[in-house]
């Protein structure tokens, strides 16, 4: 069994024209593991850890209440050890999620 550490989320560009997004990170089988209010060019601590086997899906969603939410991407993390990044680019937004697998 592998251990996943979600370290940080960097907002390179927000999806909303207000320069403020409200993204949430959802892990398959774990639900929402982080939610925050972010600004362009800022990095935020996620500080979440869990165990998984094989691979786990990560979904980044921009919450647009009362409008429908924007799915900014779906990625898979495998149990291969190392520190890596996932890049999410959709709806004009750009995010980078840094994580490690042991």
Overall description:
It is a single chain. Helices cover 0% and strands 71% of the residues. The mean pLDDT is 96. The strands form 3 sheets. A 4-stranded antiparallel β-sheet has the order 6-1-10-9, with no helix packed on it. The protein has a 4-stranded antiparallel β-sheet with strand order 4-3-7-8, with no helix packed on it. A two-stranded antiparallel sheet has the order 2-5. It has one domain: Immunoglobulin-like. The chain is mostly beta strands and 102 residues long.
Low-confidence stretches: none
State the helical fraction.
under 10%
- Which structural class should the secondary elements be placed in? mainly beta
Number of helices: 0
Strand order in the sheet with the most strands: 6-1-10-9
How many domains? The number is 1
Q: Could you give the count of β-strands?
A: 10
CATH architecture descriptor text: Sandwich
* Major beta-sheet overview: 4 strands, antiparallel
The CATH topology is Immunoglobulin-like
Global morphology: globular
Report the mean per-residue pLDDT as an integer: 96
- SSE topology string: EEEEEEEEEE
What's the end-to-end separation, in Å?
9 Å
Radius of gyration: 13 Å
What's the CATH H-level homologous superfamily? Answer: C2 domain
Identify the CATH class. Mainly Beta
